[in-house]
Amino acid sequence: MSVPYETAAYEPPDSPESPEEHLARLLGRALNSFELPDETIRRLDSALAHDSSLHSAHHSAGLHQETYRHTWLLADGSALTLWELVHNTTPGGAPQHEVYVDSEELQAAGARLALPPDTPDFELPVPVELSSIPMPRHAYVPDDSADHARRLLRRAENPDRPGAETAALLATACAHQITQAFGRPCRAGRAGLGFSLYEHAFLLCDGQEVSLWEVEHTATPDGRHMCEVYTTEDAAREAMERRAAHLS
């Protein structure tokens, strides 16, 4: 019969692992880990976060066959998935583990297993997008990102800049990307008045993405350069409009 599970039973409870530890444990128990391409292992060296989930399970007459999906979020913003097949060869026997780089290899390996006649054919469900680690919107670069966030917040001069809660959250940033934001123009209140808007996107170690929006402008009484930081693009653009209108 098919047995639905919500989490992998072999994961140690209440002991969060780093991406490196999780990979080492997976490869250590897989009988065929030596067959994985070297390029796959090299890419996993840059893993920032990981997620595991049971993909399907069939149990009958003391035999079992389960598949798990292990996905890592990499520093370049891409995701890499390994498929694990867990099964026993005799009723009640010890589980054996195999690992594969794609679902087709996994299906071929599963087809080799002899399940009892009363067991339904083993079919993998249609693969679904990973839910707990969404695909990131940016191509991140690990580069002292937590310190970058700290310096950005420190130079912000607006009274409503992000506070301690945001600072604590970004202290866990492991990568970031800075892009200039364009879009609807801001009205210039006087000749020579300059505004620039930047998105500072941060990737946290748990895979979460957080953005801060930086406004750089010279809309000050003496024309000096000023930095303001906001948590949303709309708030940043509204601030630009207010500054420009005030000095028009």
Task: Give me a quick take on this structure.
The chain is an alpha+beta fold and 248 residues long.
3D structure, described in words:
This protein is of the alpha+beta class and 248 residues long. It contains 6 helices and 8 strands; from the N terminus they run ααββββαααββββα. It has helices spanning 19-29, 38-44, 103-111, 145-155, 164-170, 233-246; strands at 47-60, 63-74, 79-87, 96-100, 173-180, 195-204, 209-217, 226-230. A 4-stranded antiparallel sheet has the order 1-2-3-4, sandwiched between helices. It has a 4-stranded antiparallel sheet with strand order 5-6-7-8, sandwiched between helices. The protein is rod-shaped and about 80 Å long. The termini are far apart.
Mean pLDDT equals 78
Shape: rod-shaped
Distance between the termini: 74 Å
Tell me roughly what share of residues is in helical segments: 10-25%
How large, in whole angstroms, is the Cα Rg? 25 Å
H and E order: HHEEEEHHHEEEEH
Total beta-strand segments? 8
The count of helical stretches stands at: 6
**Strand percent estimate:** 25-35%
Low-confidence stretches: 1-15, 117-132
